[in-house]
Amino acid sequence: MRRKWITLFACLMAIWACTLWYSVLKSDAKDLSWIYNWFLDVVWSIEDEIRDNSVWCGSFQLAWDELLENVDVHFNNQVFDNLNKKTFTADQLPHNTYYNKIWLLTLDLKAEIEKWVKSKFNEDTKVSSFVSEWSIIPQSSDYYEWKKEKKYALYSKFNKIINLKNTFEKLEDWNFADVYDDVKYFGINCNSNKKYDTVKILYYISDIDFAVSIKTWWWDDIILARWTKWKNFMMIYNLILSKERSYTNSHKFTKYDCLKIPEINLKFEKEIYKLKNQKSSDDENGIYRIAKAIQDLRIKLDNPSWTKVNKTLTDSLSNIVWEKYHYLYFDKPFTIFIKEYNEDLPYFAAQISDIKLFQ
């Protein structure tokens, strides 16, 4: 009898967990932002291992480099191997898109960060990752003057609003990965009479293996690719370049091509716990500990000048040879990179499997 009750309880708990998870998936992302951010994996190097919903931004690499320049110690722990390679450099990231601050962990530092974020981005921030431990954070750096252990904070803020060079068409809400049916998209309908000379087909191997690039007003390249699950963003990026070089068909976007891209509006402030409490020492046995490592990021990709178009432009078309068409639909898991057009490496990357984490 006891075993039956245990089995019944386990079944009820499983049903409750499934119901809760389903409600999370179907709820408004803005109302559940804290839950979604918990599932978002922020990696600190372009060569770190990623999973289904991962984000990387080069601004944090620059914050790490600044720490090593200002603190005369070397963090040689294996955790920092990829950061210490310094693969990403400052000339690959637009200066007006980020703000980094690295110094001893104090309330004065928190106030300075908030002041500069307001000044540079006109954005109010309370650096909430500091707040949970406010009672044990000293007011000023004077606290550490006679302390053997120095606690440092790394704060990296990135802010980018991407304006597309052409006015793309607003497409009807569509599903993503057969989970959501209310995802907002923009793109180009089949047989559109508009010219999209900023869109380039990098390669099209099949309807699940393709990549495109889009140039923006500010000379950024947006690269989107399907079928790209690999170990890290560097490997994925190099794979895309390799496929582009070997692609022998035309790269031009024509009336036989159809493009569908989900809106992206990603905003989070996330502490990187894998770096927390990592430490090193100097020649005098002084201890240097990373007490906080925070990535604060906002990136938005859409087109504010949209106008509503017909529900399905191609419904009225007839005598079309559909086999000619390339359906460049990013309505399944995909990878996105953003880079300056004349640079070798991207400064932002995301592996997107759950689009609600990114809208």
Please outline what is shown here.
It is built from seven helices and 16 strands.
Description:
It is a single chain. β7 and β8 form a beta hairpin. The chain has 359 residues and is α+β, with helices and mostly antiparallel strands. Helix content is 23%, strand content 33%.
Describe how the helices and strands are arranged.
Elements: H1 2-26, H2 33-39, E1 41-43, E2 54-57, H3 59-70, H4 81-84, E3 98-104, H5 107-121, H6 128-131, E4 149-163, E5 169-176, E6 180-188, E7 199-206, E8 209-215, E9 220-226, H7 233-246, E10 257-262, E11 264-271, E12 279-281, E13 287-302, E14 326-329, E15 334-340, E16 348-352
Parallel strand pairs: 1-2, 4-13, 10-14
Antiparallel strand pairs: 2-16, 3-4, 5-6, 6-10, 7-8, 8-9, 9-15, 11-13, 12-13, 15-16
- Mean pLDDT reading: 83
Biggest sheet: strands side by side, in what order?
1-2-16-15-9-8-7
Number of strands: 16
Low-pLDDT stretches: 19-34, 312-322
- How many structural units, i.e. domains? 2
Give the oligomeric state of the chains in this entry, treating copies of one chain as homo and distinct chains as hetero: single chain
Outline: elongated
Report the radius of gyration as a whole number of Å.
23 Å
Largest sheet: 7 strands, mixed
Helix content: 10-25%
Number of helices: 7
Q: What is the distance, rounded to the nearest whole angstrom, between the alpha carbons of the first and last residues? A: 49 Å
Q: Class by helix and strand content?
A: alpha+beta
The H/E string reads HHEEHHEHHEEEEEEHEEEEEEE
DSSP strand (E) fraction?
25-35%
Name the features:
359 residues; 23% helix; alpha+beta
